[in-house]
Amino acid sequence: MAEIKLGRGKGRCIEAQPNVNENTKNLELILQMEILDPSDLSTVLGTMSSFLYFSTKAADWSFQRLQALGWKGKGVDDLADLSGLTEIVDIDISEDSFEGRVQRRCQIVTGGGRVQASNPIDPKDFAARAKALLGSTAPTTNSGPQAVKPPF
User: Judging by beta carbons within 10 Å of its beta carbon (0-12, 13-18, 19+), is residue 30 exposed, middle or buried?
Assistant: First the structure.
């Protein structure tokens, strides 16, 4: 049987447990995640917990992850219904040290680092501007000894 490895992988939620942390008094949602074999999504490698926090600073981040899992809710009024958390999502498995021991963490990856276009344009306008800039240049085949190297 394959083992759970550090880095990117696939997972799905099998249980969501609302909780109030006794020490911090923060609201958290503890997601029990099945960690799936990326080469065969029907194979479960094990389970891990992933934590979503609901504070004024963390709520947007947590809502994005719930929606990635398939939650149809729109905000706090819909948190009473956590059904639909059935989507397979990208996850990141990492290790950190806490109180002198190494622990594994499972985080749902939603593309939060994705860049949003600051000045989006219509695809036809984009194509027209590219043609004006480049002329009728056809792309070259990027294989073999004469492969085009990136300009950076």
Answer: middle
pTM equals: 0.69
Q: Radius of gyration over alpha carbons of the chain, in Å?
A: 22
47 close to 118: Cβ distance less than 8 angstroms: no
Q: Per-residue confidence of the chain (152 residues) as pLDDT tens digits?
A: 578 999 999 999 999 999 998 888 889 999 999 999 988 999 999 999 999 999 888 889 999 999 999 999 988 899 999 999 999 999 999 998 888 899 999 999 986 555 567 788 888 888 888 888 877 766 655 555 555 555 54
Domain definitions of the chain by residue range: 7-108
Identify the burial level of 65 via C-beta atoms within 10 angstroms of its C-beta, where 0-12 means exposed, 13-18 middle and 19 or more buried. Answer: buried
Closest Cα to residue 48, out of 12, 102, 81, 19?
A: 12
